[in-house]
Specification:
- By secondary structure, the protein is an alpha+beta fold.
- The chain folds into three domains: 239 residues, no CATH class; 45 residues; 88 residues, no CATH class.
- 45% of the residues lie in helices and 15% in strands.
- The strands form five sheets. It has a three-stranded antiparallel sheet. The protein has a three-stranded antiparallel sheet with strand order 6-7-8, with no helix packed on it.
- The N and C termini lie far apart (95 Å).
Length: 453
């Protein structure tokens, strides 16, 4: 009983359903699509948005482009590695054409991308087709499935059971056979939803607001696409002529020429242009917010327009950290499901299950002295200065020694993309020297001025 006292089964806030399936607790899905598993369509459709898709591709590409390794018993690792290397992308020929940076994606990395969609939707599903080849049980294919068919059910023993909806049972569902499917869930934050909680909750509001503003921009453009014609005529013109002028004015924007009587004139009122810029800035704001939410970057639309190298490096670091976190979650899940099942099918009981490790060395060296000094230099370039004693206490070694080591290593030094700047200034210890230099510069400037006079 312990460990289940505060479970969702006993929660007084859970909506009681007729067939005992557990409803969604996501307020957007509840209000917009009902609390059923099928309401997930709202978040799945987010991947059709161009900005969401581009940001997600860049983010997930950071993970699946990384090398990985299996650790554990060498015999088991070798057998499992062979399975992963030869894992088909899918039974669907179109999926085999998946690429990243122009290179085909292996079946295993296609699986990672499929499961990684839970980062947006909260839930992703893949079905395993097992086969026996030369007395080895291996997955023949792992196929992507519709996550809307998955439901969580409170059975008679007050335990949560995973079921799937079928044409023969579209209300109560059918129990999911063991070791048949991968049901990966992601929580951006814990909202106590057993179906997972991806970034769709936040992205939905942003994409809907973006659609409304885009529609407003189109309406604005349509309204002010043609300048307004103003016809000036003398006082006392008969009403019959005014009617003709009116008819002529209606066709001014359609005809390539027109004829007007003498003493009449046509002026044009150009539409305001500020509104277009405002709409553009609003849409770019939403694009940046979407990118920031998915990958930690807010530089969408600023590519090729210059900017801060330090800002771009920080954005890269955040994206890598987020990708490494998702990679850790996927590795733990696959170890407890696919890898574990493969070992249970083919090796004696008690055999150690290999662990999956993605190679994110660039996050492992961030606390190294050279990396700390590099960040200090970047902050120094932004106007933040650090006392030398403070840095040396935290680095555990004199700054000069680190600088000399890095200069000797050049561009191949860990964490450094080029030679370090030898003129790195320290505010506290160099204050006097800077002051003296400024006085000398001022005297030199005065002498030069006097000579020119």
């Amino acid at each position: 009983m312990f460990g289940r006292i505060l479970s969702i089964i006993t929660s007084p806030y859970r909506t009681v359903q007729r067939f005992n399936w557990i409803p969604r607790t996501d307020d957007v899905l509840t209000q917009k699509g009902g609390s059923s598993p099928q309401s997930l369509s709202l978040y799945i459709n987010l991947l059709n948005d161009s900005v969401v898709q581009a940001s997600f591709d860049k983010f997930i590409g950071e993970l699946i482009s990384r090398d990985y390794k299996l650790e554990g018993d060498p015999v088991v690792v070798e057998a499992l590695q062979e399975i992963l290397d030869n894992l088909p992308s899918s039974a669907d020929e179109l999926t085999k054409q998946s690429t990243i940076n122009g290179e085909p994606i292996s079946g295993f990395k296609t699986l990672l991308r499929t499961l990684g969609e839970a980062y947006i939707t909260g839930l992703s599903v893949a079905e395993i087709s097992w086969k026996i080849v030369d007395n080895v049980v291996k997955p023949a294919a792992i196929k992507t499935r519709d996550p809307r068919r998955i439901m969580f059910y409170a059975n008679s023993d007050d335990e949560i059971e995973i079921r799937y909806l079928a044409s023969s049972s579209n209300l109560n569902g059918v129990p999911l056979p063991p070791k048949s499917s991968l049901v990966f869930r992601y929580w951006a934050y814990n909202n106590f939803d057993v179906y997972g909680n991806g970034l769709g909750r936040q992205l939905y509001a942003l994409t809907e607001a973006r659609k409304l503003k885009l529609a407003d921009w189109m309406s604005y453009t349509e309204k002010y696409a043609t300048p307004t014609a103003v016809i000036k005529y003398p006082v006392g013109v008969p009403e019959e002529e005014l009617e003709e002028l009116e008819n002529m004015a209606r066709t001014l924007g359609e005809n390539s020429y027109t004829v007007i009587p003498e003493n009449y004139s046509v002026d044009w009122l150009s539409p305001p242009t500020q509104g277009t810029q405002v709409f553009k800035e609003i849409l770019e704001y939403f694009d940046r917010q979407i990118s920031m939410l998915i990958s930690g970057e807010n530089t969408v639309g600023q590519e090729g327009s210059g900017g801060s190298r330090s800002r771009d490096m920080v954005a890269d670091s955040v994206r890598i950290r987020k990708a490494a976190h998702l990679g850790t979650l996927l590795a733990e899940y696959l170890q407890s499901t696919l890898f574990k099942w493969f070992v249970e099918f083919n090796f004696p009981e008690g055999t150690e299950v290999p662990t999956l490790v993605f190679e994110f060395e660039d996050t492992d060296t961030e606390n190294a002295p050279d990396q700390i000094l590099r960040w200090a230099q970047q902050l120094n370039g932004l106007g933040y200065n650090f006392p030398q004693k403070y840095l040396e206490d935290n680095l555990g070694t004199p700054i000069e020694k680190i600088q000399n080591d890095l200069l000797a290593g050049g561009a191949d030094s860990p964490g450094i993309s080029g030679p370090i700047d030898e003129t790195f200034s320290i505010e506290a210890d160099n204050a006097e020297e800077t002051s003296d230099t400024e006085e000398v510069d001022q005297v030199t400037e005065a002498d030069d001025t006097q000579e020119s006079i």
